[in-house]
C-alpha cells in the first residue's frame, strides 16, 4: 500500500511508516503482542492498529494469531500479532581480540545460527580479519530460507568508532588505526548490504537496556572487560555519544600515577589495574591465555587473596564512574562478570568507600542479563534499527536468497 | 483567547501553548525577531504565526515593532516582534561559598538589578543564609514596575541537588546536608512563588549553552571552580542528569592516591589538586582569601612556576573528562578561568599528553562567554523554563506588585 495508491501526502506517509516501525519494535521486543496491547502502547485507535497490522502482514514480517472474526459471548477476544515464521534477519558480528563470533539473528532477537573462528593474536591485518568474518557470514546464512530478507550487518569493535561513518579510529588490542572495516567486510563478501559499526561497550549497553538486565532502566552503564576496559553509557534512555561518538573511554581514567605503562602511552590508567593483563599477572595466568581471561577466571581455584587488590581497584574505579555519571545500574560485562563473582565483597566495599553518598544510594551492580551475548545482540540491534525507522524502505532494499548469492 | 472561546480540544490547546512557549523562547534568545524568521524557525504558516504573536501581545510579554498594515512596492516588510517594555521577570540567586548574588533578570536574559551580600564562612545556618537571600531579593524587586509579573526564583547551589524535589543533599563548602533551601527562602520571604534549585556547574553549562560560549554546540562541559570543582555536562543538546540529578561530580575522580585528604573522606581526589585550597597553598595565599581565589589569581604577580604543577594537574584531569565524555567544548568557569589565563600552556600540553587522540582532536577549551555571570544567568534560565513550557499557565500564577507585597 504505497502513498500514491492511498493518495496520502508525504507527511502522512512518513507518520504511517513511523507507526509501522514502532509497532514492529513492540513485536520485536515482546515476540507476541495482542492488538489490545498495541492499541494501549501506541495510543492509536483500533481501526488504525488493524490497518497497520495488515500492512506488516503484507510486508511479510508478522503473522496474525487469532482470526479477527472469532467472537465469544463475553466480547471479542483481541487478535494477536507475532513475528513471521520466515521473517527478516540480520548478521551480528562480535569482533573480539582473539576470535570473531558471527550470528544470524532473527527479528525478535533470537540467535538462529552462530559461527566462531580465531583471529590472529594482535588482530592481524584488517583484510585478513575481514576475510575471516566474511567466511563466517557465509556459514551462518547458508541455512537461511531463500525467501528470508537480510536487512544488514552490525559489527562490534573493541575500540573507538567514529559515529559519522563507522571508521575504526583505534582498536588498540587489534593494533588497528583508521581502518574502514565495514568496507573491507563488504569487499570480502562481494554483496552490498547496509553495515553498521559500533564500540563493544556501547553495544553491550544497548542490548542490556533493550533486552537484558537494564530493561526499564534509563540510566545505565555497561562496562566491557575485553582485554581492555570501556563503558557504554545510557542516560535518560539515550546513548551518551559525545561529539564524535567516542564517549565512555573510562579505561583511561587516571588511577595510579606511579603505576604501569598503558598502551595509550600514559602511566597508571584504570585499565592498567583492572585490564586483562593486570589480572593475568595477579593470578599467574600465562600471557597466551589473557584473551580468554573470562574462562580462566571461571575455572580459577587459586587463593582468593591474589585477586583482592584487583577487586578493590575495580570498586574504586566504579566509584569514579558513579560520581561522574550517576547511573542507576552498572552491568559488569566480559571477564569483569567472572571477576566480580570472585571478589564481590572487595568490589562492593571499595565502591561504597569512594562513591559520594547521594549517587551511591541508588546504584546497583549487576551481571549481564544476556550472559556473554550482550555485545553480539547489541550488534544485531543496530543492524535492525533501519527496520524500525522505516520498515517499507528497509525491506525494499533488503537482500533475498543471500545463501545462493554468497555461494555463487 | 482560551480553549473554550475558540472551541478547541484539549490537545489542540496544548499544541497551541507549546507553540506560544517556543515562540517566546525564540524572542527570549534573540531579543527581537521578524515574523519571517519565526515562520522559518517554527515551520508554521504565516497566519498561525500572526495569531500566536497576537496572543503573546495580549499576554503582555511581547510587542510588535512594525504595523502589519505597512506595505512597500517590493513586497510587504515582515513585522517584527520584540520583548515587552514591562515584561515578566525572574529572580536568580547564585549562592557562593562566601557570598550570595541575587539578580532581577528580565525575559531576554538582561540583569536589571543586582545585589550581593557576604554569607558566613562555612555557610552558616541555612536559615540565616535564607534570610540573607530573602533580604537581597527584597532589594532587587523594590524598583520593579508594579505591573511586571514575577515568574519564579532560580537558585544555584555549590553542591548536589536532588532533581525530584530540589533538596540540597550535600553542599560540602557550606557544610550543609539534606537542606530544603527553597522552602527556607520562601519562608523568609513570606510569599509563594515557584522556586527551582540546581547545581552551580549544571547552571553554568545551561547558560553557556544557551547564551554564552557554547551556543550551537550540543556537547559541552562547564567546569565550575568554586572552592570545589564540579562539571555540568550537556550531551546531544540535553543535560546529563543521571538517575538522581547528581551526574558530573568530577572533582572526586581519583587522581593522586598518595595525595591529600579530600573533604569527601577519600585521598587524592582531583579536587585536592586543582581545588581552591590546593591552589592557595601553591601560591602562598592566606586561607582567608581562598573563597575569592579568582580575584587573587587575577592579581597574581608571583612566579609562574608556582602554578605549573597545578596547570598540569588541571590538564590531566581535563584529559580524563575528555576521554569519558567526548565533549566538543570545555568551558572553564569560576577561578579556573583565572588559572587558565596564567598557565594555559601547561594545561593545553597536559591535556594533549593524556587524552586519547580521537576525542582530543575535536575538543576546544574556552573561557565563559558570560564572564562571571554564567551560573547566575543559568539560575535565571531554570526560573524562566515554565514560561517556555506553557506561557498561559506560568503567567496565570505569576505574582504582580511584588515590591509592594514584600515591603508589606
Helix vs. strand class of chain A: alpha/beta
**Low-confidence spans of chain A: pLDDT under 50, at least 5 residues?**
1-8
Helix content of chain A: 40-55%
Give the quaternary arrangement of the chains: homodimer
Q: For this structure, what is the CATH class of the largest domain in chain A?
A: Alpha Beta
- Mean pLDDT rating of chain A: 91
Head-to-tail CA distance between termini of chain A: 34 Å
**CATH homologous group name of the largest domain in chain A:** ATPase, nucleotide binding domain
Supply the number of structural domains of chain A: 3
Strand count, sense and barrel status of the largest sheet of chain A are: 5 strands, mixed
Brief account:
Chain A contains 17 helices and 16 strands. The first copy, chain A, has three domains: 3-83, Winged helix-like DNA-binding domain superfamily/Winged helix DNA-binding domain (Arc Repressor Mutant, subunit A), CATH 1.10.10.10; 89-202 and 373-407, ATPase, nucleotide binding domain (Nucleotidyltransferase, domain 5, 2-Layer Sandwich), CATH 3.30.420; 214-368, Nucleotidyltransferase, domain 5 (2-Layer Sandwich), CATH 3.30.420.
Amino acid at each position: 500500500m504505497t502513498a500514491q495508491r492511498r493518495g496520502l501526502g508525504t507527511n502522512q506517509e512518513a507518520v504511517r511508516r513511523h507507526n509501522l516501525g514502532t509497532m514492529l519494535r513492540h513485536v520485536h521486543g515482546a515476540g507476541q503482542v495482542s492488538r489490545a496491547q498495541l492499541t494501549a502502547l501506541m495510543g492509536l485507535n483500533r481501526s488504525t492498529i488493524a490497518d497497520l497490522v495488515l500492512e506488516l502482514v503484507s510486508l511479510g514480517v508478522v503473522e496474525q494469531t487469532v482470526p479477527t472474526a472469532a467472537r465469544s459471548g463475553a466480547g471479542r477476544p483481541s487478535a494477536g500479532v507475532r513475528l513471521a515464521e520466515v521473517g527478516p534477519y540480520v548478521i551480528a558480528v562480535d569482533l573480539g581480540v582473539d576470535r570473531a563470533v558471527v550470528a544470524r539473528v532473527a527479528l525478535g532477537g533470537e540467535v538462529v545460527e552462530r559461527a566462531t573462528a580465531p583471529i590472529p593474536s594482535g588482530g592481524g591485518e584488517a583484510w585478513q580479519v575481514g576475510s575471516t568474518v566474511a567466511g563466517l557470514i557465509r556459514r551462518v546464512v547458508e541455512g537461511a530460507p531463500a525467501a528470508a530478507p537480510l536487512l544488514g550487518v552490525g559489527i562490534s569493535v573493541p575500540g573507538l568508532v567514529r559515529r559519522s561513518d563507522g571508521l575504526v579510529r583505534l582498536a588498540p588490542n587489534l593494533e588497528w588505526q583508521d581502518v574502514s572495516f565495514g568496507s573491507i567486510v563488504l569487499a570480502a563478501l562481494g554483496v552490498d548490504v547496509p553495515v553498521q559499526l559500533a564500540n563493544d561497550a556501547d553495544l553491550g549497553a544497548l542490548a542490556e537496556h533493550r533486552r537484558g538486565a537494564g530493561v526499564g532502566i534509563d540510566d545505565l552503564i555497561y562496562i566491557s572487560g575485553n582485554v581492555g576496559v570501556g563503558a557504554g553509557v545510557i542516560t535518560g534512555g539515550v546513548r551518551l555519544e559525545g561529539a564524535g561518538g567516542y564517549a565512555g573511554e573510562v579505561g583511561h581514567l587516571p588511577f595510579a600515577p606511579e603505576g604501569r605503562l598503558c598502551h595509550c602511552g600514559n602511566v597508571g590508567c584504570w585499565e592498567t589495574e583492572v585490564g586483562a593483563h593486570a589480572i593475568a599477572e595477579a593470578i599467574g595466568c600465562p600471557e597466551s591465555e589473557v584473551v580468554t581471561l573470562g574462562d580462566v577466571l571461571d575455572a580459577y581455584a587459586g587463593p582468593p587473596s591474589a585477586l583482592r587488590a584487583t577487586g578493590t581497584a575495580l570498586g574504586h574505579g566504579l566509584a569514579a564512574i558513579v560520581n561522574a555519571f550517576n547511573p542507576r545500574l552498572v552491568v559488569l560485562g566480559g571477564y569483569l562478570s567472572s571477576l566480580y563473582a570472585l571478589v564481590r565483597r572487595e568490589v562492593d566495599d571499595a565502591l561504597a568507600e569512594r562513591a559520594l553518598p547521594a549517587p551511591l544510594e541508588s546504584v546497583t551492580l549487576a551481571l549481564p542479563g544476556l550472559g556473554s551475548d550482550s555485545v553480539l545482540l547489541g550488534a544485531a540491534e543496530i543492524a535492525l534499527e533501519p527496520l524500525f525507522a522505516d520498515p517499507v524502505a528497509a525491506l525494499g532494499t533488503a537482500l533475498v536468497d543471500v545463501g545462493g548469492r554468497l555461494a555463487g
